[in-house]
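INTERNAL AUDIT FORM
Audit reference: QA-55
Scope: verify that the stored structure record matches its stored sequence.
Auditor: D.O.
Record contents follow.
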Amino acid sequence: MSGTSEVRNQFLEPLRVVYDQATTRRKCPAEPDWDWLTKGVERVLSNVRSGRDFLQTFQMFWSRELQVGPYFETLASARRLGMVAECSALLRRRVEACRRSPLAQFEALASFDRYAGDGHYLEHATHAPMIGETHWPTGHFFALNLKSQSLFPLVLADLAGRKKEHDIRALKRQSVAMLRQGAGKGRKVMWVWDKAVVDLPFWQERKASGIYFLSLRKAGMCLPLEQERAIDGTQPINQGVTADRVVTDRRGIRVREITFCDPRDGEVYVYLTSELTLEPGLLALLYKTRWEIEKVFDETKTKLAEKKSWATTTTAKEMQSHFVAIVHNLLLLLQDGHQQQGVENTAEIQRRQKRLDHQESDLDKTGQTLPLVYRILQRFTQATFKLIRWLRVHWHQPTSLPQALLHLRALDAKL
């Protein structure tokens, strides 16, 4: 492989660190584990349409030739999957250790680990067998750490006898340990998901293990009122909250129902949660952060062009999901490093501030103010097209890092 690109080396450095710590790496003369890791990263970053396209496009940059057959055999290797999964987990922990939550000011959240989850479907692999008269997509469930924005695969969808797996079914297949994600004793875990996971008996059972849910109420769902809770209007975070109630279902399961009105357009949102202690506005803010996982999916599908399964085996599908997570997490670390060097997306920061100022000005005309829920979260969730294009341009170029950063700084200032 080419080792002359300083941009490439900088991007891969955190992965190299965790790879050196991995216990599952082995010596393999035909295709070293490190080479396989970097090939997976390159395939996610490259704008190619298939495995053959990838091999033909990048073969000239590698120190040893990799044929089509061995490439797809390695994608189906359980041993390689274990190595990739371990490196993915170690990298994710590295991201979580060095990134601070934008909601750290809220001390009530200090005892919570917070995750957003969602299903994500890709087009079937080229040689996937037909089921009946059609092909079925490949389903993945991912989770995003809402403190650090680190991404990780949760589970591959079970499509035996079904075209798509319902989200709550996938969650029910997960153990308590999986849902707690290593949280220590006494820590609480909050899963923020869309209304597809509203299953009160399931969450009532998980609550005994310190696992809570936050979601939107399903359309047409009407739960009897048990208690109307007072809203502390002195807390700025509660601006926009119009109701905070405890409701019960027919089995007597108690949950909290929070109503929030967006003053910008009058849209009303009704949230359900098994958590009974946090300020209602803070829970509305937490649900707003769920949108970040949708933005990450936009990053992977639109900007990284990961729209199609790489191969037909379960092992290959799981490996692809880990490589997607690895690239997302490396992009987070790269952007953090750039920010420390004074390279920021100036044009987008200015556009965002302009939109915020415009919203506040419109509300001021009607004697209203923009709730804190919409003002507090200003971090970027996904990498920009220009950053990804910049990476692709310099991936195999012998440009010095200072020169490449000057190029990126100029792009950030005007595009």
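Auditor finding: record pair retrieved intact. Strands lie at 112-122, 138-145, 151-156, 188-192, 211-216, 225-228, 241-248, 254-261, 268-273.
Action required: none
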